[in-house]
Amino acid sequence: xxxxxxxxxxxxxIHLPKGTRAISLLEGNTPLIPxxxxxxxxxxxxxxxIKFEGLNPTGSFKDRGMTAAITEAKSRGAKTTICxxxxxxxxxxxxxxxxxxxxxxxxxxxxxxxxxxxxxxxxYGADVIQIDGSFDDALSLVVQISEKHPIALVNSLNPYRLQxxxxxxxxxxxxxxxxxxxxxxxxxNAGNITAYWIGFKQYHQKIRTALPRLLGVRAAVAxxxxxxxxxxxxxxxxxxxxxxxxxxxxxxxxxxNESGGRIISATDDxxxxxxxxxxDSGIWVEPxxxxxxxxxxKMIENSSxxxxxxxxxxxxxxxxxxxxxxxxxxxxxxxxxxxxLAALEREILNG
Length: 351
Fold this sequence. Notes:
The chain has 351 residues and is an alpha/beta fold. The protein is built from 15 helices and ten strands.
């Protein structure tokens, strides 16, 4: 197939203004990777796949939504885009704006964005502005300025973001010939879980596939959806979901409830353990991306879910290169050997 990105592949299902020309980097078409080692570690008897969104062009699932948001903004003549970001949105907005020949402005909380993500926004030519405040403060500012000036807001509040992101649900159904029994994924600003539910319901209406149950997983220190109230200045190693006031929190709760699923939280230690489980299967994700596996493991271990004979898909939203510091900070400097075979043999054979 001559693949041309998610808008081209699913054009009849993605609601965009007529006549728009897709701004694409050939995003989507990410693999479903079976992980039998993790299945065995969690007790066996079920099927588990990782939807590895870190293989999108800028390394995260945000590219799906950004192709639609930038396509729509370009079609109505916008010259500038703006977003608040904890990192992945910044890189995607910058890349797709560059592709469209538009200026991108990125507002980030000072000192709270992983280096790998900030580097992407800079490389793609965005104007990066740091504020002395949280992501939630940054989001409030970009909403206000986009309401006063002809600047296109491309955060997940933009409805076209959800139109692009729902394409991942279509891909999963196409790959499995139907929906999984459960879909697990991280929840930050809550746009992604909302988009998946829109996509699954749309496919259900189109081809009468079954609907999955959704398991959304928040970081335990930023669990506004779980607690039911905002969390000021949340701190977690899962930087991509370090958001105390999810913009689509109510929609996420609705999606989980309608699906018969739930939204739970995972601690930093549980998320890091899940990140290692994935790495042991050859899949390196940023910490936040491991939240879905952490949540699934927690449900099974707490006997609140029996996965036997079920098909489960876990969405891993970003590549490990997005936030490598967690790994590199734990890595001790390797020893330096003489460039001699005997020294190498001693180290390998007697180490």
